[in-house]
Design a protein that fits this description.
Layout: H1 2-16, E1 29-31, E2 40-44, H2 46-58, E3 62-66, E4 69-72, E5 77-78, E6 83-87, E7 91-94, H3 115-118, E8 125-128, E9 131-137, E10 140-142, E11 159-164, E12 167-172, E13 175-177, E14 182-187, E15 190-195, E16 198-201, E17 206-211, E18 214-219, E19 222-225, E20 230-234, E21 244-250, E22 253-256, E23 262-268, E24 272-294, E25 299-311, E26 313-321, E27 335-347, E28 356-358, E29 366-380, E30 411-413, E31 415-429, E32 436-451, E33 461-472, E34 475-476, E35 484-487, E36 490-491
Parallel strand pairs: 1-3, 2-4, 3-6, 4-7, 5-8, 6-9, 7-10, 8-11, 9-12, 10-13, 11-14, 12-15, 13-16, 14-17, 15-18, 16-19, 17-20, 18-21, 19-22, 20-23, 21-24, 22-24, 23-24, 24-25, 24-26, 25-27, 26-28, 27-29, 28-30, 29-31, 30-32, 31-32, 32-33, 32-34, 33-35, 33-36
Length: 493
């Protein structure tokens, strides 16, 4: 894989420098215009692109080059192994309204995930069981407003890029726009690398869905979505529970108009482990900024967030174990454990979904989570209310699936081994609720924790049936000691 990628990059460099197609061996460069593409924005160039890809693959690998121009693609392009798609600056591949894309394939596992996740052929670019494929350069692939955001009819496409069971994928430099349901959907892949990828689907739906995929490195991504921006999932579309993990995301800029910016789930069949997220800026999410949900039996562990800045999120941090169990082979209840947050700041506006940790029950708690240097500012503005456990729909992953939390800040329910260190929570408007409430949990620590005091709130931090709590070296923003309320709880300081 590494040898092929090095060759393709070297070839791309020769082409950009003007060395010419015929001198770019080994590996070969295949200009789509040599295979009949017009690049004039009106002719259907899909057939020519397929021919160039076939030629490159038959030669053992090569680069299919798009020079500056607009290439209409009215049919699904069929990717093949050992082929790099290179989009030069000024090159745009655009979608079509002709309804002539490949129809969705049948899938006996339709019932286990949404329609869009279950079908892969109905895309602008599709490939299955491929190795060493890449999209590079400085050009754009634009659905052009022609891709479907809902369930497509035969001939309609709902995604730009659809790849299943691939090994060795590079997505770098290019821009994906108006992708329909998904700009990019990959499932069952491994060894994925991306640098300086730009996705703009703010008028459509999802940015990049990375499903049942291992060994991923993403650097300097910019993703502006309407639905989910960058999301990690594991479904049953390929007829099995597949592993996920060994993922690093660094230097990303994310936003989501209606939904989640950086998310695990909701499809969560296979287990997830080994995720590192750092140097990430989130500038909007009307659901979760940072979301982790296990709805379908997945064990989610060893996940680490560092140097994250959020603004405009409705729910800055949300963790929930649900019991939807929408996965094959009769899944049980999943788990969330071994999570750390370091140097995270967040301000959120609009609907006030308090930052939440919610386990399924006393036997399935969210556990071993540490917040260090996590500072959140929430809208506030609520009056006083009862401090009982809010309602919950265990089959729904959205922040609104839990009723109004009785705390303006952190609300913990069925949690264990949770630590807040050098962290704080404040509100924009005076709030009559406590800063934090912990219910039916164990081993909870607030160490050097600062909370803003509501003028009418009954207390600042409350423990309800908590086996082992500790509040130390903590205070309100005005410097007074936190008012701690305990009910049926025991201290372990």
């Amino acid at each position: 894989m590494k040898r092929f990628l090095l060759i393709s990059c070297a070839v791309a460099g020769l082409v950009v420098a003007g060395a010419g197609v015929t001198t770019a061996a080994p590996g070969g460069v295949y200009d789509v215009k040599d295979y009949g593409a017009k690049g004039n924005g009106s002719a259907n160039d899909s057939g020519a692109v397929d021919k160039a890809i076939t030629a490159a693959n038959a030669a053992g690998g090569g680069t299919v080059r798009f020079t500056a121009g607009t290439y209409k693609s009215a049919n699904t392009v069929h990717l093949k192994s050992n082929v790099t798609i290179q989009l030069d600056a000024g090159a745009t591949i655009t979608g079509s309204s002709a309804d002539s894309y490949d129809k969705p394939e049948s899938n006996p596992n339709d019932d286990y995930q949404d329609y869009g996740h279950s079908h892969f052929h109905n895309a602008m670019f599709f490939g299955d069981k491929l190795t060493n494929i890449a999209f590079t350069g400085a050009g754009t692939i634009d659905g052009g407003g022609n891709l479907i955001t809902g369930n497509p009819k035969s001939g309609e496409a709902d995604k730009i890029l659809s790849l299943t069971r691939c090994d060795g994928l590079t997505l770098s430099g290019i821009k994906l726009r108006r992708g329909g349901h998904f700009a990019a959907l990959i499932n069952g892949c491994t060894n994925v690398v991306s640098d300086h990828l730009t996705i703009d689907t703010a008028s459509d739906r999802d940015g990049w869905n990375i499903i049942s995929t291992t060994n991923v490195t993403i650097t300097n991504a910019t993703i502006a979505a309407n639905d989910d921006a960058l999301v990690f999932k594991s479904d049953y579309a390929l007829g099995a529970k597949l592993p996920n993990g060994n993922v690093t995301v660094t230097g990303a800029k994310l936003s989501a108009v209606c939904c989640n910016a950086l998310m695990f789930g909701s499809e969560t069949c296979g287990d997830f482990t080994g995720y590192q997220f750092s140097d990430i800026t989130i500038t909007g999410a009307h659901k979760s900024g940072l979301g982790i949900v296990s709805m379908d039996g997945a064990k989610i562990s060893d996940v680490h967030y560092r140097d994250i800045t959020m603004s405009g999120t409705y729910s800055p941090i949300m963790m929930k174990i649900g019991t939807r169990k929408r996965c094959g082979n009769k899944p049980g209840v999943g788990s969330i454990s071994g999570i750390t947050f370091d140097n995270v700041t967040g301000t959120h506006t609009g609907t006030n979904f308090s930052p939440t940790i919610w386990g399924a029950d006393s036997g399935h708690r969210v556990s071993d989570v540490t917040f260090t240097g996590v500072h959140l500012t929430v809208p506030g503005g609520n009056g006083t209310m009862g401090t009982g456990v809010p309602s919950n729909d265990a089959t729904d992953y959205n922040p609104k699936s839990i009723g109004t939390r009785p705390s303006y800040g952190w609300y913990l329910h069925y949690a264990s081994g949770i630590k807040f260190v050098d962290s704080s929570v404040e509100f924009g408007k005076d709030d009559g609720r406590p800063a934090s409430i912990v219910n039916n949990s164990s081993d909870i620590t607030f160490d050097r924790f600062t909370a803003e005091k509501g003028s009418k709130s009954p207390f600042d931090v409350g423990f309800q049936t908590v086996a082992g709590y500790c509040v130390k070296d903590s205070a309100t923003t005005s410097g007074s000691a936190l008012r701690v309320n305990t009910s049926g709880s025991s201290s372990n300081c």
